[in-house]
## 1
Amino acid sequence: MRIKSRSLGLAFLYLCGGVNLNGCTGGIKADPPAACDPMLNEGCLAPEVCRLIAGGEARCLPIESATAPCAVGSCAVGEACLQIEGLIRCARVCLEDTDCGVGVCAYEIGRWGVCVSPCDLLSQCNERGACAPIEGLPFPICIAEGEAGEGEACGACQRGLGCLAVGGAPACQRLCTPDLPGLCRGASCDGPIEGVEGLRYCR
């Protein structure tokens, strides 16, 4: 399996132990037995579907009507409603990178992971999101936009910036790609970001 051991930044939003608790994160349990398969939706009787819930457990639950941005039962079959790096989203449940198509199987939820996909620096992600690199992932993803400006200590940075340790403490650096050097506003797009192919910072 290629599930990255990164539980920080990830939280279940609506269900812990069968109780609706907004913002509940629960505790990670080591490889718990699943009551059903949340990837394949096996082991449940219709109209219920198999959902991954807090603690890395899988349970048969009724389908919920869609809410913004999601609720535990309103995502597509095979997905879970999670807060990932500050953004609430539906994410596909996985065990291997090959389960994800474009993207990788990341984070650790019991014996499962969730798929994350790369974003484009020009993408808006959503009204509260920003495309930025995250430690341990080979590409940038949509994360929650912060308030820290260029050169300021981070935390969460403003859109177009990434939290990088460049010769010292982490600070918000302007991001660019070789095909979008104009994002640097006159600076050079040649600062390498270790482990993230095709993404640079301006210097």
## 2
Amino acid sequence: MGGFTLVEVLTVIAIIAILLGITVAAMGPSDGPRARRAARDAISAMLTRARSEAVSSGNPTAVAFVGLGDGPEESRGRAMTLYEVVRDEVTGDLEAGDQLRRWTKLPGRTILLTSEAGAGDPDRALNALDQPPALEVRVPEKGKSRPSVVQVPCIVFEPTGAVSHPAGSGRIGIHVGEGAWRNETLLITARKDSGAPLADTVYLSRLTGRARSLEGDNR
């Protein structure tokens, strides 16, 4: 009864090693781009939903984001929802009305980036996470029965479909990178060759309230 020769055994081992290498390569590097793409799609869908809600209801509607500086650590830069908003006639301050959707978290290890966290923008669009918190909301916190009361940044759509907040001119940018919180410190886990965070961007037109996505490059 014949057995395998040494050459045959080594050939099989080499083939298995190659296949394993291809599998790891296919799973590893592509996980980040896939997660960022999914996060972009989720943000675009939330913005579109807020615009549609404002137009159909006739009430200003906000997409609220938990910023990087406040709120439960597990939600910072990762959670978003929709609120009906009311603007104070005297001060112009925004007040949260009914919450229209449950809090949604971005997929995988994706996280929203501020300019301070390294999110650059060659088009000089206003970073939505750079604005001062404008809306007081309640954010669920793991392990606690009561939600945390947090001031968060937001984007407000008017019944015309246009964006009224944050104030300014030009487009608004929402930058999605990869990272995680460790002991109150944000660790960026994917960077460009230049060292800046690798990030995809959702751009929002103030005039039309329409969003479009742009995939980041590695330069």
